[in-house]
Known about the structure:
The chain has 253 residues and is an alpha/beta fold. It is built from eight helices and seven strands; from the N terminus they run E-H-E-H-E-H-E-H-E-H-E-H-H-H-E.
Amino acid sequence: MGKLDGKVALITGAGQGVGQGVALALANEGAHIAVAGRTESKLVVTCNEITERGGRAEPVLMDIADADSITAAVARTVELFGGVDILINNASLNPLGNILDITPERLADGLTSGPVATLRTMQACYPFMKERGGGAIINMVSSVAVRWDAAGYGGYAAVKESVRALSRAAACEWGVDGIRVNAVAPHASSPGLQRWADARPEEAAAFVAGIPLRRIGDCETDIGTAVAFLVGPDAAYLTGATIPLDGGQSRWG
Length: 253
């Protein structure tokens, strides 16, 4: 018996990286998983892994930059599983670069895929969670906003801090409905982080050296299992918080 038996989780960007790790960890605890994302072949890989472990998962095509696609993905999840109990907003585009190099268009893309998509997906899931007596939402953010050196990360931080603000507001407004909302800031061995490390090897080495635990987290065993705890019954009194899953590196004010 898992702690999430019978729960339905919609996870965006679940075809790889952090989203995939969270999907596997939640499935290990008995949740049924709507594996959402743009690339069906990647979604099928995650679904097959969950099925091989004895769980249930279905691929759900979803483009977080498209409002109609978000609405359709939530509706498809309800059609497949009967409702939604857990939402993990993981997918986003994160504009990196110095202030003089980031175009308004790139920043707009980041905001559309970040806080705007987060808002739309939470709004779409809200009535189904309320109908089922509550739910749990995790919005993935980043400690980039509290970096010791913010140079080159302004756009990224702007996107993720907007998501944090929406998370806190939703937690305050929806607590009465039994819906908990938290933000998680992970350091994880995802494809995105690997691309960054390959492009900036010296910075990446210094980054790892600055983590007290001296390693990057595993997408499933470090990030996914912690998220499974956060959306489960043992964290029932936790909402409106930002939880850094980063080996102790960040100091949030």
